[in-house]
Amino acid sequence: MTDTPEDKVDAPTPPAEGAAPTARFNHWRLEVRDEVATLTLDVAGQSANVLSQEVLRELDQALVGFEAKPLKGLIIVSGKPSGFIAGADVNEFEKITDPARAAELARAGQHVFNRLAALPFPSVAVIHGYCLGGGLELALACTYRIARDGSDTRLGLPEVRLGIHPGFAGTVRLPRLIGHLRALSLMLTGRTVRAKEARRLGLVDDVVPERHLLRAANVFLSTKPARRRAVWFRRVPGLAPLRPMVVRALTRQVQKKVNPDHYPAPYRILELWQRAAGEEQEALSIGELLVSRTSRNLVHVFQVGEALKREGNRHPHHIERVHVVGAGVMGADIAIWAAYKGFTVSLQDRHAEVLARAMKKAHGFFKKRLKEPRAVQAAMDRLMPDLAGNGLKHVDLVIEAIVEKVDPKREVIKHVEDTAPPQAVIATNTSSIPLETLAETMHDPARLVGLHFFNPVAKMQLVEVVRGAQTGEEALNRARAWACAIGRLALDVKSSPGFLVNRILMPYLIEAVTMVEEGVPPAHIDRAAKDFGMPMGPIELADTVGLDICLSVAEMLSGPLKLEVPDRLRELVEQGHLGKKTGQGFYQFSAKGKPKIPAAKKQDDVPVTERLILRLLNEAIACLREGVVEGTDAVDAAMVYGTGFAPYLGGPMRYVESLGETGISHSLYRLSQEYGKRFAPDPGWAQPELFGHRSPRAT
Amino acid sequence: MSINKVYVVDGARTPFLKARGEPGAFSAADLAVAAGRPVLARMPFAPTELDEVIVGCVIPAPDEANIARIISLRLGCGKQVPAHTVQRNCASGLQAVAGAYERIALGQAQLVLAGGTEAMSRAPIQWNAAMARWLASLLRARNAFARVRAVARFRTSYLKPVYSLLLGLTDPVVKLSMGQTAEVLAHRFAIDRKQQDAYALQSHRRLAAAFDGGHMQEEIETLYDTRGNFYTEDNGLRRDTDTEQLAKLKPVFDRKYGQVTSGNSSQITDGAAMLMLASEEAVARLRLPVLGELLGHAWAGVDPSQMGLGPVHAVSKLFSRLKVKMSDIKHMELNEAFAAQVLACQAAWDSPDYAREELGLAEPLGRMDPDRLNPEGGAIACGHPVGASGARLVLHLLHALRRKGGGKGVATLCIGGGQGGAMLVRAKGGAA
After folding, report:
1. Distance between CA atoms of B360 and A73, rounded to whole angstroms?
2. Does residue A6 belong to the interface with chain B, where contact is any CB pair within 8 Å?
3. ipTM, 2 decimals?
4. Is residue A306 one of the residues assigned to a domain?
């Protein structure tokens, strides 16, 4: 063990005598001490490390410099508190249009990593926080990997989520290190693993607390244990005669999740593996995928999400304590999520049994997510069931989530305004009542903002931050920043009927029910929607949400949007068939809550899909025209993150862009001739400025 | 030495949950957090602004060393607020309040959270000393032969567990269980079974009336477990009990000839009570509501085998020091460890002989008016989570005094090991 104090490496002190000069690197810091070189990556001008071409070039230079030196070892570490390396630079993807050029870049990266792997002395990657994609591939090229203990350490190869696969020899090195099936599972799902699991998988050689990271690295460099490799039985599935069988089995599993026409990347991973492909084939394959429509659109989806995060983080929220009024499904889920994310939360309800249910749910949720008993206890301690409303006295944000009725909501909001400190933001989770209406009885209506969460809160990433005409800038900025702080994507929408997501979704759902009335089997409609790329068909969605809720939203929107509510929907609600919660809606549900959907025959779905999707697109344009949201990216973000709208298409507006506005408005005109004026093209189709520029916040 | 005024500004307790012969749903720390959290939530200052957290607890779990610190951190008081745990058996909760009182009175603190907690159902069950010695010999065995020899020395008697709760409820000096000390008092003051059962019945009836009248809700916070259950009432309260049922119960301490039964004793329960204490200056600066004022406390020692008489002596000391007499006291909370023990205290206060011989007084203090002694029942009905009871008595006393138009009150307990503790409070009448 060396006697290097731990704090020496991180400290930005001038390098010791004899150390290589560091001035020529913009992103790496090099220090040599006791014949051990340390390369610290600290990408200039970024809060997280990404592997841009420049970063890789500099690494290459540094490695070339080492080859002739008599060193004992190399330590690669990140200088960012946020993590090791978050992956390749996604912003560079868009600039590449030629598959050959993309393959060339992959080769260049492979070349650098091969140089790292071939150093005449051992190397060790010291990993904390995020170690993803290219970052993990870099670590895989090192002789050893050491991860910091703690729940924030995450390793993975999430490339598949951007429509590509690892391109810096990850598909080659990972199976060798951890075995074939485990490697394929990581690459196919793109899931990330925590430090402990990474050690169990063999992805890292040791997991140690912060205080021992560099000591452990030095121990590995001086004792030089044998390089880790998968045990023999994990290498068995890679035997040539078995590979086709393994691929067949895995293909069946992948097919259950994604359509190969929409998402080719996972199938490509299997194909490469079946051929025991080397680095060159990996490079060629990623070259093709990187410039494909799917990858472009998935990157678009990723970027509009990142843009929302940046926008949300522009302002401070100054919120520590949150009070939620109403412990029904939404209120409880919001409170549980906020406590999970570290806020001190009081959850108020008039009924102890409702609070008891919420606390049981909270405990189950925390146990599942946090696992560690002390962390579960801390989260439970942060969440106070509150019959009396004690939490209101000392609070920074109040969220009202009671029954969707004007008078009770007004009463709660008024009481909150009278009781809570004057600087507290007051938010409502209403999905349908205009904010102006709720603010009417307030002394200071500027304090009221909408925070519209979607069900289930823990899964749906989007939160609509609703701006009423009366909402003040401060309330808006703080609510948006807080939504961001709890890991949700906050999207500004204008207070108008249905806000954005529900409004765009409703004509699509109603058209589906109308087709059921016309005699099209529900399974046929759902099948068409899923083939288009929706995560769930509209009929199943209606049954899952609850037909009573659908009906009330539809009726609320029917006036302002001139929607005709189908009689079939009313009939089912009157008969008490509310969908999943009663076991019977359009579909029958099993005891476990699974719908019994008869297998729909493959047939010509074009008219069905067209009717569904065009109504949705038409409403999206109406929202843009009316200024419910600003910019096409906002619509894409809302529909992909709020409803799961076919991500491979990049969202509705990206889809419109690929088809052309004129074509769509012609189709709408044609459908309006056939089915009536609900298909009449929105005037917005004729306003090119609605499509021309991207949202200001995405730039 | 300047003495500052000390106020109780708020407080709450959990419902007391009867031990059902298995570990209950809540740890002692869980209970204290459930009681303390709403109190802190009602305060206009942050929990991090506290000067100290003091908690009484008699048998914390093995993973609850200095339980007050655990509670303080779990309540969000932060790393900088110091916390300590106090143990004075049945008066641990009162000792915590007394300690907080002293720190504020001396001007060393402005805001102190004090209380008591106990999860008696979770009292640890331990290996006996023979087992510990055997385990040590096993660990010391260095080779296979030595290990075999060590294993061979095992005796099944080593498996006999040690119930720390039973030991805790037995006086280690006079070797009498707490119930047996009550038998001693029943004998000395000639209190028969009927009187004891009648007192127990009254305790249940009074507590039931207080719940039905909506008086307990102002000091009890609903408790939620992780399985979807909630508790709003002390679940040891028997609304349906009567003289006949109580008479049927067998004595549990002196099994053959005794009179003290589980029906006329306090119940083994889990629960916590927490009080927020503040100095006069803090009350003014933060505009805190005032529940009442603490005027002083006194402690006294008695014969361990007659520990139930502790209140007689503690109250006597308290009165002489603070210049009050029994008739000044509008409301007294005397912990109902045993019906016989409460009745013995009353008899002792009344007795000229006892006053002269044991208290050194020319005149007896006189008994407390039975209508104003534990008017909302006591530990026989609601239970006696040992560490928590002292804090519960002060909390309830203040609420009851306020409701009844204010005045002076006493909270007092007998303490296993032969002590008594008493605290004098004053409250103004408030809206109730």
Report:
1. 85
2. no
3. 0.93
4. no
